């Protein structure tokens, strides 16, 4: 379906107020419900799921070091909005169809509050998963100022719950960040970018079979889902009226599987100031930004002296990435900025020459290097199944770093796709990427490099929690495990891959 572009104004997610805040502590209540929301002017309202009556959910904003408690409440109906494949791990007929658990993506948090995939719960907590420990999650927010996001993480149906609308922003602020005099207040805007397919009645479409249907299954998981149109903050191809001044945008790829390569059709630079884990050491001027699912980048766009101009943000990333089909009319355009608001006051915000120190983690300080493969197989139905280190979700845990230990994880991608690899609990730094001979490795188990080591791109040189592992490359990351011990997960953030076995637990031991 072809939908008109730039006919709906960009919604800004509301800010969630705490029930109470005192003495460096705060308490929130967040309710998951089903409701109707307009995604485009020319369509009937869409039945969606969301937090506190909106998708994206309300933005939660806390101070670095603030101790926040959040009561996540499932008030969803018993019937799922989208088709469930009961052959997928964790989604068999022995569990309720509608179950949720919330993960604050990028947060360093105790494992009981991390949103472990089997810590799910149903409406009113009538049924809970085997790893459910508490109704009220506790976030210490030890992180630096950064853009995080919260989303559902229930085992076997994460792709459906997030696509239905269960996602929102979680921002951590700090005094150090405020002293930089970056664009702030109404000039600091989060942008959640997703792809959707909408039917003529406005309802969400999600396939119940892959392109080649699976005999004997009424509903089957698909290898990846790519929608026909782009939404930003829950609107299809919206526009934003801006003043001729600097703005800070928090870009989030919240799509199931689609990568975005974002540019401005004006050709102007975007000044990237932050990665997943917060501010970089200095701004980087870029003409395009590639974001895999779950990655974030904060940018400053300067509309000064552009009165009367319209600037369009475009997307040029193939799907699947990096060798799939190029975007078409519905997916090559993201949104429009209209520089038609009068300047309210002189813009005194700045793009600082230096932002924040990012201490380098040194490979010589690593206590261990783990070699972990990304693998592609076929299941007994002939469907793609992606694995981490050739192991299924319920295999014995093999990654058990010690609390406080620095490790290098060397990720060997033998598949034809790029995978966004996400680790819970920790931020890491990218060391390098290097081409290798995949066919030789699959025969011998020995990595034979075919190119020189490539350092991370300038816009990746900060704290990260999600890294693009390119096909035919070895990607090395380094991190220190802590400050919590316990049970966490690492996985591909293509949600269809995550739901179908490309996720593994790890345990931080004392």
Task: Describe the protein in words.
The protein has 510 residues and is mostly beta strands. The protein folds into 3 domains: 155 residues, Immunoglobulin-like (Sandwich), CATH 2.60.40.420; 155 residues, Cupredoxins -  blue copper proteins (Immunoglobulin-like, Sandwich); 146 residues, Immunoglobulin-like. It is built from 4 helices and 30 strands. The strands form 6 sheets. It has a 7-stranded mixed β-sheet, with no helix packed on it. Strands 1, 2, 3, 5 and 7 form a 5-stranded mixed β-sheet that branches. Strands 13-21-20-15-18 form a 5-stranded mixed β-sheet, with no helix packed on it. The longest helix is centred in the first third of the chain and has 7 residues. It starts with 19 loop residues before the first strand and ends with a strand. The model has no long low-confidence stretch (mean pLDDT 97).
Shape: globular
Total strands: the figure is 30
Low confidence ranges: none
Helix content range of the residues, please?
under 10%
CATH architecture of the largest domain: Sandwich
Fold-level CATH name of the largest domain: Immunoglobulin-like
CATH homologous superfamily descriptor of the largest domain: Cupredoxins -  blue copper proteins
Strand order of the largest sheet: 12-11-10-14-19-16-17
Give the tally of structural domains. 3
Q: Largest sheet, if any? A: 7 strands, mixed
End-to-end separation: 55 Å
Protein name: Multicopper oxidase family protein
Organism: Fictibacillus iocasae
Family: Belongs to the multicopper oxidase family.
Pfam families: Cu-oxidase, Cu-oxidase_2, Cu-oxidase_3
């Amino acid at each position: 379906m072809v939908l008109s572009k730039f006919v709906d104004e960009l919604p800004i997610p509301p800010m969630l107020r705490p029930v109470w805040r005192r003495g460096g502590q705060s308490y929130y209540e967040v309710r998951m419900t089903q409701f109707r929301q307009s995604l485009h002017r020319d369509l009937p309202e869409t039945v969606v799921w969301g937090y506190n009556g909106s998708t994206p959910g309300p933005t939660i904003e806390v101070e670095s070091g603030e101790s926040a408690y959040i009561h996540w409440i499932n008030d969803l109906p018993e019937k799922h909005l989208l088709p469930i494949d009961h052959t997928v791990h964790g989604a068999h007929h022995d569990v309720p169809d509608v179950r949720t658990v919330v993960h604050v993506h990028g947060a360093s948090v105790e494992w009981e509050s991390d949103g472990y995939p089997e810590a799910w719960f149903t409406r009113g907590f009538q049924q809970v998963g085997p790893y459910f420990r508490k109704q009220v999650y506790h976030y210490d927010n030890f992180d630096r100022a950064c853009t995080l996001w919260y989303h559902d993480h229930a085992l076997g149906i994460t792709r459906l719950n997030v696509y239905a609308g269960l996602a929102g922003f979680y921002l951590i602020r700090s005094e150090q960040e405020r002293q930089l005099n970056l664009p702030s207040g109404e000039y600091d805007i989060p942008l959640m970018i997703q792809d959707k397919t909408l039917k003529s009645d406005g309802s969400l479409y999600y396939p119940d079979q892959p392109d080649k249907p699976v005999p004997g299954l009424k509903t089957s998981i698909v290898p990846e889902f790519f929608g026909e149109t782009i939404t930003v903050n829950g609107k299809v191809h919206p526009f934003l009226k801006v003043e001729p001044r600097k703005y800070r945008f928090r870009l989030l790829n919240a799509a199931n599987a689609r990568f975005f390569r974002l540019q401005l059709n004006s050709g102007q630079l975007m000044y990237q100031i932050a990665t997943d884990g917060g501010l970089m050491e200095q701004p980087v001027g870029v003409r395009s930004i590639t974001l895999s699912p779950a990655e974030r980048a904060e940018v400053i766009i300067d509309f000064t002296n552009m009165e009367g101009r319209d600037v369009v943000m475009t997307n040029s990333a193939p799907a699947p990435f990096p060798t799939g089909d190029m975007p078409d009319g519905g997916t090559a355009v993201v949104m429009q900025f209209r520089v038609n608001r009068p300047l309210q006051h002189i813009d005194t915000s700045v793009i600082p020459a230096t932002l924040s120190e990012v201490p380098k983690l040194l490979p010589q300080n690593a206590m261990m290097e783990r070699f972990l493969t990304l693998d592609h197989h076929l299941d007994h139905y002939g469907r793609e199944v992606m694995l981490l280190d050739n192991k299924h979700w319920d295999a014995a845990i093999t990654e058990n770093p010690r609390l406080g230990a620095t490790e290098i994880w060397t990720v060997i991608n033998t598949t034809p796709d790029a995978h966004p690899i996400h680790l819970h609990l920790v931020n890491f730094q990218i060391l390098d990427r290097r081409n290798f001979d995949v066919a030789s490795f699959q025969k011998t188990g020995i990595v034979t490099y075919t190119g020189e080591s490539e350092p991370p791109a300038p816009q990746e040189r900060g704290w990260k929690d999600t890294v693009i592992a390119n096909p035919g490359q070895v990607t090395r990351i380094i991190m220190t495990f802590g400050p919590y011990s316990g049970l966490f997960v690492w996985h591909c953030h293509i949600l269809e891959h995550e739901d179908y076995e490309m996720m593994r637990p790890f345990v931080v031991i004392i």
